[in-house]
Amino acid sequence: MLAVFARNWRNALLGLAAVALSAPAWSQALEPLRVRLDWTPWGVHGAFHLAQQKGWYKQAGLDVSLEDGNGSVTTVQIVGAGDSFDLGHAALASAMIAREKGMPVKAVAVFARQSDIGLLVPADAGITGPAQLKGKKVAYTAGSLEAPFIDAFLAAGKLKKSDLELINVDAASKASTYAVGRADAAFSTIPFFLPVVSQNRPSSAVRFADFGLNMPSFGLFANESKLAQRRDAIERFASVSARAWEYIYAGHQDEAVAAILAQRPQARLDKKVLRGQIDALQPYFGQPAAGARLGAIVPQDWTQAVTTLSTVGLISASAEASSFYVPGLVHAERYDSLVQP
């Protein structure tokens, strides 16, 4: 009896050893990666929380820590000037402007290829462009990303700021100012605010991108020193995140909503608003370039961005578009087998 027991125990140990040897390396040593987000939880973070919830980052060998932010500009400054984070997620125009001022940051992935800033208007107002804003009361935030583009946007409708009443409100008050009707329209980040304000005031959007003011929007960037030190880990995170976005927009939006709620239970988030934000974001992702997958850098987008930003004096017109990004880091296709429907 003892001999049989010993033989069975030995076989069990050998079986466990074989499982351990065949297990992927990530299960034994995960590489830590700290990521600073652009804002408090909202729909644009869907891919990160979903990949975290499903364990996709761990399966790619990463132990990811996601920290909420308080604005793209602040995230760019913290990631660009410090050593606390390996990667940042923000509106990439902010990273371009910071680099032009000497901060060593570069984009590594672009999820929303089209500018998300524009004008929120009541759905029944009949406002489809800047020309119809004459005499209107419009809310904006002086220190926001949209502020420098207002003159150029209005000029497309042959208007000047003096042709309308601009109300400068802080970012936290802008949505409520517009939603309760104290403004006829509001300049803002469309996918974030549109589902929020539409609960009280059904609204639509007029995109700056449709009036020649286009540039890459939300994506990932890193300090050049981190890119040199941790390129492989950054590449894995960017690629898994891109694949997660593909998964979400293949009909799994509600899974992304559930993941955000599960990952940020104390944030008191509205399920309907989160879904609305994810849906509102999709048009800004656009179609990947021929032969590319979501997340990949598209050079012509950055050429356009230089034109857009230089037109309003935020960067030099002679800036080299390729200096703002690192190509070839995003490979969503490597994780097709990982992310199963």
Task: List the main descriptive attributes of the protein structure presented here.
alpha/beta; 12 helices; globular; disordered N terminus
Describe the 3D structure.
With 341 residues, this protein is of the alpha/beta class. The protein is built from twelve helices and ten strands. It has helices at residues 2-22, 46-54, 56-59, 72-81, 92-100, 150-155, 171-179, 190-197, 224-248, 253-263, 271-285, 299-311, and strands at 31-36, 62-67, 87-91, 105-110, 117-122, 137-140, 165-168, 185-189, 203-207, 218-223. Strands 2-1-3-10-4 form a five-stranded mixed β-sheet, sandwiched between helices. A five-stranded mixed β-sheet has the order 7-6-8-5-9. Helix 2 packs across helix 9. The radius of gyration is 23 Å and the shape is globular. The termini are far apart.
